[in-house]
Amino acid sequence: MPTRRAFLSTAGAASAFVWLPKPVKGYSTAEMRAFTASADGVTTRGVSKWDLDTPALCLDLDAMERNVATMQAALKRFGVVSRPHAKTHKCAAIAKYQLSTGSIGICCAKLTEAEAFYAAGIEPILMTTSNPSPQKVRRAMALRKKNPQFIQAVDEEPNARDLSAAAKEADVVADVVIDVAVGTRSGIPAGEGALALAKVIDTLPNLKLRGLLSYDGGVQHQKGFAARKARALQAIEANAATREAMKKAGLNVEIFSGGGTGTYNIMHHVPGFSDLQVGSYLFMDMQYLEIGGEDGNAVYKDFAPSLTVTTTIMNNRFPGLLTTDAGTKALTLNKPNPGVIGEPGMDYTAGSDEFGTIKVTSASKSYKIGDKLEVIVPHCDPVVNEYDQIYGIRNDRVEVVWPITARGKSQ
Amino acid sequence: MPTRRAFLSTAGAASAFVWLPKPVKGYSTAEMRAFTASADGVTTRGVSKWDLDTPALCLDLDAMERNVATMQAALKRFGVVSRPHAKTHKCAAIAKYQLSTGSIGICCAKLTEAEAFYAAGIEPILMTTSNPSPQKVRRAMALRKKNPQFIQAVDEEPNARDLSAAAKEADVVADVVIDVAVGTRSGIPAGEGALALAKVIDTLPNLKLRGLLSYDGGVQHQKGFAARKARALQAIEANAATREAMKKAGLNVEIFSGGGTGTYNIMHHVPGFSDLQVGSYLFMDMQYLEIGGEDGNAVYKDFAPSLTVTTTIMNNRFPGLLTTDAGTKALTLNKPNPGVIGEPGMDYTAGSDEFGTIKVTSASKSYKIGDKLEVIVPHCDPVVNEYDQIYGIRNDRVEVVWPITARGKSQ
Asked: How far apart are the C-alpha atoms of A357 and A346, rounded to whole Å?
């Protein structure tokens, strides 16, 4: 993969800034200070990222802020808005930053995730997954009662009736959207069935229909922009027709939400599309670097990698091999492999639970036990979910330490 | 895989017991009661595992206790002892149970893990990984000062000298073991270099040499008992010779530790081998089911699967497919795939972050949205690390809810 290698060989060079702390938008100085102690009580503000205990999950704040600015400017041009998916970062501090920079709300994938974000002060939450169990129906409507800005996805009539009954019990009229499938993963298939469900929901006394979701998970990592665009627009045709039919039937379609970091510059071509559920644009990862950009480049450079893990060399005694302290529990098993910044001649496998293994074909120096490396993660979402905290880094020093608010909230 | 299928089709039948709570050894009734509230404050004692919010990490306590009894009885016959590796369960309650049933201590893979176990009341801890960074050297020796039963692995002279200096500063003589490599992952290669390191350590004023570690990670999942035995014994030959040389040089070799669930009935053939670092025997998983037993059966049945995840059907609308709510963040990407108990005609892929996908070739019934399934996990260690709590189940009902004490402690 020459292009990936070329990218990795230069990515390290981008980090030569002067240390000049500045507050992150949406937070007071007092709140910022509160974030500078890590989970184990050690204050790390001002510490070099190279002195953090490893494996450490690091976020380059400048790069993340530029990514947000890039996304917001692009969506403004396209005439749509962002409702970022918080399953990517699971971090209330980052959600607040997104809301303070123009996003209209956040998405959550799991009810416990939505509960955790609400408990941390985030209100405009769209839950993109249905909650088919009786407990979850009750808890979702309890959350709706506390939080009028909570919107719940629904994809079948029995669940809609359960939600309406629970909403009645909670004495609320709950906002809902229909999850209409793109592909075969979640949601009701587009077409007559979805339209019929929308009509039923419209008659239920304690539900208020707000529109529909149509997220295409499969297309996000389709390589090559032209192929991605063609596939995304074709896959959503039936959903767009369903929205049109809902509209003709006098149903509310103000929300027509979906898309992601791979299709943020595509979905506005779909009539009525309202908002993008982008997530990975904040962080980027090896998977997204590979999908290719609109400019024809094989490396996707619309957003810069901001999320990394630092790791320590544990063994250097075997020819052509290095062992590190970041394995599956620190980097997950997603492919492509973690990318070692500045060392395109290294192939990093996180296949052992506790150790990483690097095959070295060439290296910029001779690595000793105790030396450190920094890697771009394979796939950002599940990596973030392994950590309790994320170090917000500016100019290579810790500016903030943010708790991963909804870490492990998979229910 | 007919044998795996046959196993899965009968595994569910083993769970028909009468609900009769009994205390877990090592805990008072008061401690037991304290464990019955889950992380979100909901008391679940007595609740059916089928009513738990999903994905739920469940542990069949009867099966786990039988696994422990089986292991302890076998090791007694073999004339060795167990020092279980706590990286598998990361749970202080389970560590206490192991110590109360004959294990001489626990192993930890990471310093933060060892710190968390000590904070939860566990004292006999052997840290199997070296700590090559200055911070970790200091913290390890600070832990040793508080906990005289802490033993630290070391695998190079500079690190040994740093440890001795830090131990002197902490005013302790610290117990250490040399980590001698089996394969190319961690540790110093067996032979002269290891012997020389042992001699240096023996001269350092603030270190006390206790012996050596020789863990062979690669052989644990070697399929077929005969092949596994031959490979394990061959791979450790150089280590056994190194131990012999250390002994002849008058060095302390009281600890010669290694082995795992795949080699618990092999390592006692190695002269001087003292203790087994077994972990997965508690839980089992799809990886260990596949390795085959000494009886020639392709399914490894020495220990019973006790660790499962329950999951809810989210979609059933596409022919031959089901979508569930347990994906990568709930089950990891390890292979082989999660095994659906009672449904050998289902192939479960946890490839989406938030969703599982099941290809159904045959099923015992027609599954509806909201129905639940229970799966055996692919690989127990990293799955446990995804959850904040584990439900201890007896006769299908919750008896205890244990926090995963060292979850996410990967530093």
From this structure: 10
Backbone φ and ψ for B229, nearest 5 degrees, come out as -60, -45
Query: Which of B236, B246, B253, B391 shows the shortest CA–CA distance to B310?
Result: B391
What is the spatial distance between Cα A87 and Cα B325, in angstroms, rounded to a whole number?
Answer: 14
Q: Which two structure tokens, joined as six digits, stand for A350?
A: 């996180």
Asked if A354 lies within 8 A of B187 by C-beta distance, the reply is: no
- Which residues neighbour A214 within 8 Å (Cβ) at sequence distance 6 or greater? A180, A182, A187, A190, A236, A239, A256, A257, A258
Percent of all residues in chain B with a pLDDT value above 90, rounded to a whole number? 89
Is this model's pTM higher than 0.95 or not?
no
Can you tell me the mean pLDDT for A143-160? 98
Residue in B68, B55, B25, B38 with CA at minimum distance from that of residue B398: B38
CA B12 to chain centre: 23
Burial annotation A149-171 (CB, 10 A radius, 16+ → b, else e):
ebbbbbbbeebbbbbbbbbbebe
Q: Note whether A113 contacts B: Cβ–Cβ < 8 A.
A: no
| Per-residue model confidence (pLDDT) at position B43 | 72
Burial bucket for residue A16 (CB in 10 Å: 0-12, 13-18, 19+): exposed
3-state secondary structure of A301: coil
The answer to whether the complex's ipTM is over 0.90 is yes
Please report, rounded to a whole number, the percentage of residues in chain A having pLDDT higher than 90: 89
Structure tokens at A229: 């665009």
Tokens of B235: 């791979």
Where helices occur in B84-224 by DSSP H, the ranges are 92-100, 111-119, 134-146, 157-169, 192-203
Distance from CA of A315 to the nearest CA of B (A): 6
Residue B142's pLDDT band (cuts 50, 70, 90) = very high
Judge: B186–A353 Cβ closer than 8 Å, yes or no: no
Nearest-neighbour CA in chain A from B389: distance (Å) = 10
How far is Cα B192 from Cα B188, in angstroms, rounded to an integer? Answer: 10
Residues in chain A closer than 8 A to B379 (CB atoms): 353
Bridge partners (DSSP) listed for residue A398: A393
Q: Which amino acid is present at B256?
A: F
Chain A and chain B share a number of CB contacts under 8 A equal to: 159
What's the pLDDT at B44? 83
Residue range B6-12: average pLDDT? Answer: 45
Q: Is B347 helix (H, G, I), strand (E, B) or coil?
A: strand
* CA B203 to mean position of chain CA atoms: 35
**pLDDT at position A231 over 50:** yes
Question: Can you read off the two tokens belonging to residue B136?
Answer: 């970790």
Interatomic CA distance for residues B176 and B130, integer angstroms: 10
In the chain, the amino acid numbered A373 is L
**Rounded to an integer, what distance in angstroms lies between the CA atom of residue B370 and that of residue A130?**
10
The strand pair at B81-82 and B275-276 is best described as parallel
Taking the C-alpha atoms of residue B239 and residue B259, their distance in angstroms, rounded to an integer, is: 13
Q: Which of A323, A353, A385 lies nearest to residue B186, judging by beta carbons?
A: A323
Cis check: omega of the bond before B336, within 30 degrees of 0: yes
Tell me which chain B residues have a C-beta less than 8 angstroms from the C-beta of A43.
none
User: How far apart (Å, rounded) are the C-alpha atoms in residues A197 and A293?
Assistant: 38
**Residue A123 CB neighbour total at 10 angstroms:** 14
**Residue B24: pLDDT band with limits 50, 70, 90:** very low
Q: Do A386 and B408 count as a contact with CB atoms less than 8 A apart?
A: yes
For B381, which of A109, A110, A353 is closest by C-beta distance?
A353
Cα A90 to Cα A282: distance, rounded to the nearest angstrom: 12
Q: Is residue A95 pLDDT above 90, yes or no?
A: yes
Element (H, E) at A340: strand A339-340
Average pLDDT over residues B199-219: 98
Q: Is A387 on the interface with B (CB under 8 A)?
A: yes
List chain B residues with CB under 8 Å of A334: 328, 333
Strand, helix or coil at A410? coil
Cβ contact B138:B164 at 8 Å? no
